[in-house]
User: Which sequence fits this backbone?
């Protein structure tokens, strides 16, 4: 698979599978994209900013744009509308996939955004497991009692049709579940 194809998938069609946060204009962090691609392994283990710049410069169709520490697809998004961070009532349960060694800390401290602005949560188990596989070949699947957390004051934001965001999720609302 060509680099442009995987970057298209990440920036135009399924940013949640790469744990990317696109702003309202479709911009994502170059560092987050590089980290996500490297985590996929194989041909992507050595991808860096320079490889992205060469891909962009050598493309006749100019599908992508780099500006400072951000990158975006210029067109061709299959995501509905602009991605906005609106507060909304979440579904009863949301899911998060992570590495087994991270579970112990989450059990105590809850879900924290670490190097991101928000904790990313999936609407279904399959997507959460796919995201978790970026961190481990045997990810841990977590269930978040989202409606209960919202009732207790945790704000949830719509990321897109498959992803919800929160600043943090207290451990009280998180359970390990079978994947």
Assistant:
């Amino acid at each position: 698979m060509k680099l442009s194809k995987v970057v298209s998938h990440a920036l135009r069609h399924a940013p949640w599978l790469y744990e990317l946060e696109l702003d309202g204009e479709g911009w994502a962090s170059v560092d987050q994209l590089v980290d996500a691609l490297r985590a996929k392994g194989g041909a992507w283990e050595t991808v860096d900013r320079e490889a992205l710049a060469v891909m962009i410069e050598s493309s006749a169709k100019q599908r992508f744009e780099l500006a400072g520490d951000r990158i975006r697809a210029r067109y061709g998004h299959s995501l509905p509308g602009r991605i906005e961070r609106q507060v909304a009532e979440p579904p009863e349960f949301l899911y998060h996939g992570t590495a087994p060694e991270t579970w112990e800390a989450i059990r105590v401290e809850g879900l924290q955004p670490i190097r991101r602005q928000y904790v990313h949560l999936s609407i279904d188990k399959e997507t959460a497991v796919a995201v978790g596989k970026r961190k481990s070949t045997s990810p841990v699947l977590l269930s978040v009692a989202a409606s209960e957390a919202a009732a207790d004051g945790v704000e949830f934001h719509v990321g897109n049709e498959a992803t919800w965001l929160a600043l943090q999720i207290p451990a009280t609302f998180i359970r390990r579940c079978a994947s």
